Amino acid sequence: MMVNNMESIIKTVDLHKSFALGNHEMLEVLKGVDIEIPPAGLTILKGRSGSGKTTLLNILSMLDDPTSGKVFIDGREVGGMTLRQRETMRRYNIGFVFQSVALVPIMNAYENVDFALKLADYSKDRDERIKEVLSVVGLEKRMTHMPSQMSGGEQQRVAIARAVAHKPKIIFADEPTGALDTSTGLGIISLFKQLIEKEGITIVMTTHDPNLMEFGDAVYEMEDGELKYVSN
């Protein structure tokens, strides 16, 4: 698969990933995955547990390395980067949202977002940006609330505000609605769409929820380590 890198913010070429099982056996989790993800949209990776979608997401986000194949992010081949260059890209250009919200429990919503901005060395007005993103996720009146004082959906909204606060180019979201009821999960996806329009970010998320597929700008299905295009 050869395309102009500028047409996609992320792409892979013949991506394979295997894990050692013991007894010198190998489990092939990704089997020659080619994917191209356009900028400023919502790309959904769907599939059952064990299909390989989270492994693919971890490789795309540079949390793991492929066994073979190439990954390009914003036109740069990840395999050619030093560890420092990868860390810099993760810190400044990438945000993460997980099913397990993982807010700092002793920090309120405002402080959780501020903490993320400090880690990213955000150089502009942090107070202004914190209030802006908490307002975008609908929590401007809950800034001083602790995670324990919030519902699961509200906590996930704080996590999303935290992920986008430093203005990354890409958000990787692994089952971000998995622990939420259907109505709350749909609200999170609606929020993602708003953020794409407002911030111009690219969001790549995994899910097994069929109710969410229609919201993807592109939907891919993982099955037994292979990827197939479903719709746009």
Describe what this molecule looks like in 3D.
This protein has 232 residues and is of the alpha/beta class. It has a single domain (5-103, 166-231), classed as Rossmann fold, CATH 3.40.50.300. 31% of the residues lie in helices and 29% in strands. It contains six helices and ten strands, in the order E-E-E-H-E-E-H-E-H-H-H-E-H-E-E-E. The protein has a six-stranded mixed sheet with strand order 6-7-8-3-9-10, with helices on both faces. The chain has a four-stranded antiparallel sheet with strand order 2-1-4-5, with helices on one face. Helix 6 (182-199) links the parallel strand 7 (170-174) and strand 8. Helix 3 (109-119) crosses helix 4, helix 4 (126-136) packs across helix 5 and helix 5 (152-164) packs parallel to helix 6 (182-199).
